[in-house]
Amino acid sequence: MCDQVFTRLLQLARQPNAFFQQTNQVEITVLIRQLEYEAGCRQASVFAPILIMDPELFVNLTHQRLEYLALVFDRRARLIRLLSAAQPE
Q1: What domain of life (predicted)?
Q2: Dihedral sign of CA atoms 21, 26, 27, 30 in order
Q3: pTM of the model
Q4: How many domains are contained in the chain?
Q5: Could you tell me the residue range of the domain that residue 22 belongs to?
């Protein structure tokens, strides 16, 4: 299932001006949610900014690299939360 969703996201990313003129944002949101919940791809929501800011980057990243990138984003977010909680008010 995960690969099917990534394939559809890649198709959207390859469209000319996909994320500024033609892309159905609802479809992207649904696909991202499928990755997160149904397909079990952790932290898939980090892909949305990549798709919007740089569709070519998304197309060039492999599935494994995207999963690694999601893990990096997740760890960074946790570290920021821990550091924020540790700072005195």
Answers
A1: Eukaryota
A2: positive
A3: 0.41
A4: 1
A5: 2-86
